[in-house]
Amino acid sequence: MRSFPGHKSTGQSNTLISNDDRAGRSNDLMWNDLNEHAQRIEGRHILDLFEDSSRAEAFSLSAEGMLFDYSKTQIDADVLDALVAMAEDSGVAARRHAMFSGKKINETEGRAVLHVALRDPDGGSVEVDGADVIPEVRETLSRMEMLAEEIRGSKITDVVNIGIGGSDLGPAMATRALSPYHDGPRCHFVSNVDGADIADTLALCDPATTMFIVASKTFTTIETMTNARTAHAWLTRAGVTPDARFVALSSNKEKAAEWGIPEERVLGFADWVGGRYSVWGPIGLSLMIAIGPKNFRDFLSGARSMDVHFRDAPLDRNMPVLLALVGIWHNQVLGYATRAVLPYDNRLGRLPAYLQQLEMESNGKSVSMDGEALKVPSGPIVWGEPGTNGQHAFYQLIHQGTQVVPCEFMVAAQGHEADLGHHHELLVANCLAQSEALMRGRDLEEARSKVSGQFEGAELERQARHRVFPGNRPSTTLVYPMLDPATLGRIVALYEHRVFVEGSVLGINSYDQWGVELGKELATALGPIVAGDQSADGKDGSTAQLVAYVQKNCG
Ligand code: F6P
Where, by residue number, is the active site (predicted)? Predict the structure, then answer.
């Protein structure tokens, strides 16, 4: 459990939210209040909370066809009230309004945050700097559709998206998630500057029928530009004129033009689309090519439905808000350092990686909006793998390790493989069994009875102890009808808004990422040193030693 001596009201740092919009300046008291609840519930067993037969329903929320069940946590009515009060006091509602109406809530970069506009091409006007952005959203979407249809109707068999971070994870995650809807060319994703990535991908492709999408908001990212040059050379070597085989997706149209990509093959997007929020616009082109414009529109509409829910539902009946508050309870209040995302949906295999960027690049900060040090942890380490695979790997620690890992399960009511007998029932049963086991646990007495026929005396006692599960471990479960394009859109938008709420409560700017810069600068400086063109003098002993080893052993 955490204590918050002198916790600062992080909400005060949000200069876009007027004092009038703030429900009160009692933020310190609210953290202390939550802290007291944490002490109050110590030693209580989650299972006991189900003596109240209305608990499951009371601590669940149905919205947009999905069910979010957070009843297998220690949250009770008083904790929930305190968490919702915290969200109210932090100005979540005012900040949400500011985001939807195009205010520049990304204050360190002076940018609006309007990925929500990308999924509302037929919506009313949203102004940034006095200009309505919706006509541009509509026009870009229709250019994407024309280009996607042109590529889908051509001889192209393989499309390679070259991008990294948000210019890779979104389309890669969603393209895999929606594989039952693929009816276009095969889509591949190359991100790593490690030549192994592009080499292994090109080995699967024929230069005569392969198209490359260079996806980079800035069009300067070293990994992407290096891979794009390698792809260019690969086509040239095969005697294929590269120009007609490249599409650029970027906010930096000048750089794309410098690269020689014809204007009609450059799809631009505004600076109010953050990289990790960009799958809904041009960066989603590879996904659109794979599943077709109609399915892509369904993906957008699903996300839009979650936007409307998030925008309009009261905070205590609002799925992204509740998901965020459960996370805040576990991380900032109870001090659980990590969060496992466990989709029982193999096609969501890239979702944990996607959510790592979404959550950790957005909220992994040390200072609040006004530059003051945060007094509470900024957010958990997010990790995970699809079930049931994780069960046979790391669930041991989740069940019996000394650290509590709040788990977020997700599963579809229906799979796409109805013809494969009872696979899906087994999948669902495993998902539900894991959350039940985490909560229920197994005490020593039960463990003894499990081994009583096999061992006796002290050995029985020793063996039994190894079979004890502490239980009382929290989890949430999100259930949705089926992983179709609209549902995927809803799930991703749900998580995006969760990150927004977490950031608002903590007073963090979730939309910059200064923490990635230092490593990039040092890598640029180290390039010529590793190549042997500059001396490692002035580098620390460890770095110099590692460079020397590489140079000696590079063959
Ligand atoms: O280095 C981090 C980052 O800037 C991410 O925020 C972004 O998604 C990724 O790099 C790729 O950037 P770009 O789309 O400009 O190539």
Answer: 361, 392, 520
